[in-house]
Amino acid sequence: MSKSLAGRLISVLLLGFLFHGLRVVSATDALVLSEVRLVGSDQLSPEDLTRGLDLKLGVPTSRQSLVRACDRFRQLKLFGSPRCTYTTYGHSVSLTIFVKPIGMPVVFDNFVWTTRPELLARLKQEIPLFMPDLPESCGLTDDIIRVLEQVVNERGIKAPVRYDAHFWTNRGMNVFYIEGISTPVTALQIEGINAPSPEETLKFSQFYTKENFSAARLTWVIHFVIRDLYKTRGYLRPVVGKPVTQFLGEKDGAYPVRVVLPISSGDLYLFDSVNFEGLAKPHAALLLSKWKLGRGDPYNESYVNEFISKEILDAPWAAHSKSGSDVALPCTRIDAVTKKVSLTVTVEVPKKTYSSARHSDEECDDGVGEAYPLTSQLEAAGWSLVLLSSLLTEQPCAI
């Protein structure tokens, strides 16, 4: 063998040995995943993230695997602005995901034979990244439907599960429902201090119990419960607890329920005074003479709205012009200490630009008054109504 050939052979052997050594080092020095955590929300635990992203702690991984896991997390759109960082310590690596919560409550519309905690637990067991609050139409929707259909089939009900991506999402809820299953609310019950009488509750609920209102719809009806049964009696800031749905058993293919609303009435607010501004003195005096809500009476929001509609919006003197009108944004003045309410009703010429500034010590309690459009009578008159509010300071309310 010539010296040149022998030299080339030795070079090849040495090069092969070096590459073999590099492969050994690469295998033995692989990164080990030591931690996975979420920053910005406490809705997912490290265990949830690890299991949901198909990662395993304490075993070798690669940056490519972590990048793929992060990309999948972003595609699910469970949070706003997800951002991943990787930190290495020797041979170990940790994954941190920074997020911004953007979810809406998940609602199970007509799953009345089971409880919400049971459904949440079942979904969490099979979908580690599931949360009770999720963004609209997120990447888990199909998985949630799959699990809920398993629950329905186990119950012996052969019906598909649907996700409402329109009506309820516009009202801030992620609603899943069983197609074709009727769950009428046949009884509405209110519990708590200063609850309305059973007779009042029954009279109020007759409209809703005659319709096919599901439990999810009753969360929408709560607004009217507060408006009609509490604010009319001076309880302007009641607190509603979590509604309880009681399954009453199957009847002719339907699943009727009773809904129990735990409501804390809160403080009683009393009427103090009313002022009518922007009118001629005779008009203002006439309105004051017709006002029947007395000082010291429980503040009745329904009476105020009815008075405004009947005595101002429908008044003969308000029907002489065809110019446009503004939309009313009613508020009230509330003294947080004495629990007294005063009202300023200002009639303004339409198409006027108002300042949006409010004094720092004023509070416009939109929960007391209801925003409503002006009637056609006022539109014909060319007037608009503005209800103004503050905390009974000497400074005027501004809108």
What do these coordinates show?
This protein is an alpha/beta fold and 399 residues long. The chain folds into three domains: 28-100, Roll (Ubiquitin-like (UB roll)); 104-264, no CATH class; 270-388, no CATH class. It is 32% helix and 23% strand. The chain contains ten helices and 16 strands. A four-stranded mixed sheet has the order 2-1-4-3. The chain has a four-stranded mixed sheet with strand order 6-5-8-7, covered by helices on one side. Helix 4 crosses helix 5 (141-154). Residues 9-28, 320-330 and 351-399 have low confidence and may be disordered.
- Reading the helices and strands in chain order gives HEHEHEEEHEHEEEHHEEEEHHEEHE
Percent of residues in helices comes to 25-40%
Low-pLDDT runs of 5+ residues are 9-28, 320-330, 351-399
From the alpha carbons, calculate the radius of gyration and give it in angstroms.
32 Å
Categorize the overall geometry. elongated
What is the average per-residue confidence, as pLDDT, rounded to a whole number?
77
Query: What count of structural domains?
Result: 3
Number of helices: 10
Distance between the termini: 102 Å
How is the biggest beta sheet arranged?
4 strands, mixed
- What proportion strand? 15-25%
Entry summary:
This protein is of the alpha/beta class and 399 residues long. It is 32% helix and 23% strand. The protein folds into 3 domains: 28-100, membrane protein fhac (Ubiquitin-like (UB roll)), CATH 3.10.20.310; 104-264, no CATH class; 270-388, no CATH class.
